[in-house]
Amino acid sequence: MLLSTTDTIYGKKIVRHLGLVRGNTIRARHIGRDIMAGLRNVVGGEISDYTKMMGESREQAIDRMIEDAQRLGANAIVGVSFATSMVMQMAAEILVFGTAVVVE
Q1: Are 68 and 61 a contacting pair, CB within 8 Å?
Q2: How many whole angstroms separate alpha carbon 31 and alpha carbon 49?
Q3: pLDDT, tens digit, 9 for 90 and up, residues 20-75
Q4: 89: domain range?
Q5: H/E/C letters for each residue in 70-99?
Q6: Which of 6, 11, 53, 104 is deepest in the core (most CB within 10 A)?
Q7: How many domains does the chain fold into?
Q8: CATH value at residue 84
Q9: Whole-angstrom Cα distance, residue 73 to residue 88?
């Protein structure tokens, strides 16, 4: 599956637009990670546990978007974009969306 943040894919011709596709995941924070994050906040530096969790969340959301596009018969997704929002005090949603297309 080809993915592009632009509305086109260089060297390919879009022959059909199939519509909006999306994938999302909601992740809750872990109290143990929060304690370590608090300590890291005091001394500074990257909070690697959260970096890893957010990376895994993005990949899961992308995988779900690709599955959505494949159900429509797409071989590419253009205009891919991410959004993040808090859904409750200790949980965030990662949403990825784009337009499913068929390219030649």
Answers
A1: no
A2: 12
A3: 999 999 988 665 555 555 555 666 667 777 788 889 999 999 999 999 999 999 99
A4: 2-103
A5: HHHCCCEEEEEEEEEEEEECCEEEEEEEEE
A6: 53
A7: 1
A8: 3.30.110.70
A9: 35
Unique residue bearing structure tokens 């109290």: 31
The token pair at 95 is 């949403």
Query: Which H helix or E strand runs over 13?
Result: none
Q: CB of 98 within 8 A of CB of 24? A: no
What distance separates the 2 farthest-apart alpha carbons in the chain? 54
Structure token digits, residue 34: 């929060």
Contacts 24+ apart (CB under 8 A), 35-41: none
